[in-house]
Specification:
This protein has about 140 residues and is of the alpha+beta class. The radius of gyration is 15 Å and the shape is globular. Helices cover about 30% and strands about 45% of the residues. The longest helix has 27 residues. It contains three helices and seven strands, in the order E-H-H-E-E-E-E-E-E-H. The termini are far apart.
Length: about 140
């Protein structure tokens, strides 16, 4: 089973300001509650996430290696993360609006262990809420 969640957010900020946040693998990782720690290679945009999933078969964190596989500044970024427990794909598309910008987000999680997909089915909406809140806070502090 695959879990897929899509949602769009509206901001009173130009696409370039939204891009500065969403194209940064570190900022994306900070917004996700199950990412306990991460490291980012600024040259390659590859990141390693240590993810804590409250499921029976994962006793500690799972290491997720992520990389941006497509970048079209300041409009689109797609990343893929792989680990022993899941494969995650995230897409962020920014479009200019009359009042600022709209950010379309899509996350797809394919679990490799029982419980991973049901965890994300229950929690992906909350993780998108976290991403939106972090981006709004960033835009307010840089405005």
């Amino acid at each position: 089973m695959t879990v897929r969640v899509s949602r769009a957010f509206e901001f009173d900020a130009p696409p370039e300001a939204v891009w500065e946040f969403i194209a940064d693998p570190g900022r994306r990782a900070e917004a996700i509650s199950v990412v306990e720690s991460y490291e980012v290679d600024p040259e390659t945009h590859e990141a390693t996430w240590e993810v804590s999933l409250p499921i029976p078969l994962v006793r500690s964190t799972a290491t997720v290696e992520t990389e941006d596989v497509e970048r079209d500044p300041p409009r689109f970024v797609r990343f893929v993360g792989t680990s022993k427990v899941m494969r995650v794909t995230g897409e962020h598309t920014i479009e200019e609006t009359e009042t600022g910008s709209r950010l379309h987000n899509e996350f797809v999680v394919d679990g490799k262990l029982p419980g991973v997909e049901s965890f994300f089915k229950r929690n992906l909406d909350r993780e998108l809420d976290n991403l939106e809140a972090a981006l709004r806070e960033e835009l307010e502090t840089t405005a």
